[in-house]
Write a structure and sequence with these properties.
single chain; 388 residues; alpha/beta; two-stranded antiparallel ribbon; 14 helices; 10 strands; 45% helix; globular; binds 6-deoxy-beta-L-fructofuranose; binds manganese (II) ion
């Protein structure tokens, strides 16, 4: 039988990290629809992240992206975040927007460009030393567009060399979360295209290297919860970049396109007792809100993760394991679906009320007038994010 008090404690202790870039302008190659009230600097992004935490109670950290969030004094930025009620989380590197990286960053045929890219990774660790961040989040757009364009094996040697130098620079309590992506911007071969490649590099690096699963970075039809179960069993799952998609790397609100998949993923987390922050998995959002208001979209996304998690925690695992071990296919599936088909919104409303929060964070945010305030206040200056 499921212990509801334990379920509520687990939900109250859940931690979801929001992305600084999710509060800024974003779009597609066709158009960026700038929005009024968008942050103009890292401080305003952090203020918006703190607002999400104020209404959800479970989003106490914000991931930064360098150089999008470059400042002169990261210790001061970290202090500002504390004042706002949040902390700075993962530091994301960016070796995908510099002209020099057309043929790759750390895998580039040119040694000088590889050096430049690796130095950026090392600079990010210097920043972590000042923000107190644990996670160095590495994603490489590196890849090639045509067969024969470059040597696949040699590029792996270059990748491994840069990762090794970066890994060896890590301080105590710091780690690498290595993200993979099937394609885009490279359209023939990506140097870290899948979980297996990331896992293999992490194995050869050492215990402070783990895999980051971005839920939008797989071929259609990929069973992501299998990857989650496998990496948890191997002790090599470090982080998620949550979002959802119907086709490619759409970066839509997590749970919007496929709430059942998110439930199946969170079930593997719960089944491994890996939900508790002490276990060490970083649950982060990595989304772009191209047409919808950004803060309510991120609040909704946090709620979608909470709902999937609550359903996963309600799976009657004794009954499920019994049916599985009995080979009772239909009963096992029925037990699993029973949890998924449970309306957990009243339970989450109770968890929020117990924490002194409004049971409906989105409605509470709309009533708060914060959106109107930032639209009125944030006039002039240059909006952060992709150029309008
Ligand atoms: C790459 C990615 C990566 C980030 C970027 C904003 O597609 O998922 O995690 O650096 O989006
Ligand atoms: Mn990502």
């Amino acid at each position: 039988m499921t212990d509801l008090a334990a379920v509520k404690r687990a939900l109250a202790a859940q931690r979801i990290e929001t992305p600084s870039w999710g509060y800024a302008n974003s779009g597609t190659r066709f158009k960026v629809f700038a929005q009024p009230g968008v942050p103009r600097n890292p401080e305003e992004k952090i203020a918006d992240a703190a607002t999400v935490h104020r209404f959800t109670g479970v989003a106490p950290s914000v991931a930064l992206h360098i150089p999008w969030d470059k400042v002169d004094d990261y210790a001061a930025l970290s202090a500002y975040a504390q004042e706002q009620g949040v902390e700075i989380g993962a530091i994301n590197t960016n070796v995908f927007q510099d002209d020099d990286y057309k043929l790759g960053s750390v895998t580039n045929p040119g040694g000088g460009i590889r050096r430049k890219a690796t130095d950026h990774l090392l600079e990010a660790i210097d920043i972590m030393d000042r923000t107190g961040s644990r996670d160095l989040k590495l994603w490489f757009s590196d890849g090639i567009n045509y067969p024969g364009q470059d040597d696949l094996r040699t590029r792996q040697d270059r990748m491994a060399e840069a990762l090794r130098e970066t890994y060896d620079r890590l301080g105590d309590g710091q780690r690498i979360v290595l993200e993979y992506k099937l394609f885009e911007p490279a359209f023939y071969a990506t140097d870290i295209p899948d979980w297996g490649t990331s896992y293999a590099h992490c194995l050869s690096l050492g215990e402070k290297a783990t895999v980051c699963i971005d839920t939008g970075h797989h071929a259609p039809g990929t069973n992501i919860e299998f990857i989650v179960a496998f990496l948890l069993r191997a002790g090599k799952l470090g982080a998620f970049d949550f979002n959802s998609r119907f086709y490619a790397d759409d970066d839509l609100m997590v749970g919007a396109a496929d709430p059942f998949q998110l439930f199946r993923i969170m079930y593997e987390i719960v089944r491994a007792d890996a939900l508790d922050p002490a276990y060490g998995i970083a649950f982060m959002l990595d989304q772009c809100h191209n047409i919808e208001r950004k803060i309510p979209a991120i609040i909704r996304s946090v709620m979608n993760v909470q709902e999937a998690t609550a359903k996963a925690l309600l799976v009657d695992r004794d009954a499920l394991f019994a049916a599985q071990n009995a080979g009772d296919v239909l009963e096992a599936n029925a037990v699993f679906m029973d949890a998924y088909n449970t309306d957990v919104r009243p339970l989450l409303a109770e968890v929020r009320a117990d924490a002194g929060l409004d049971p409906d964070p989105v409605a509470a945010y709309k009533r708060s007038g914060y959106d109107e305030k930032i639209i009125a206040d944030r006039v002039g200056g240059t909006q952060a994010g992709w150029g309008a």
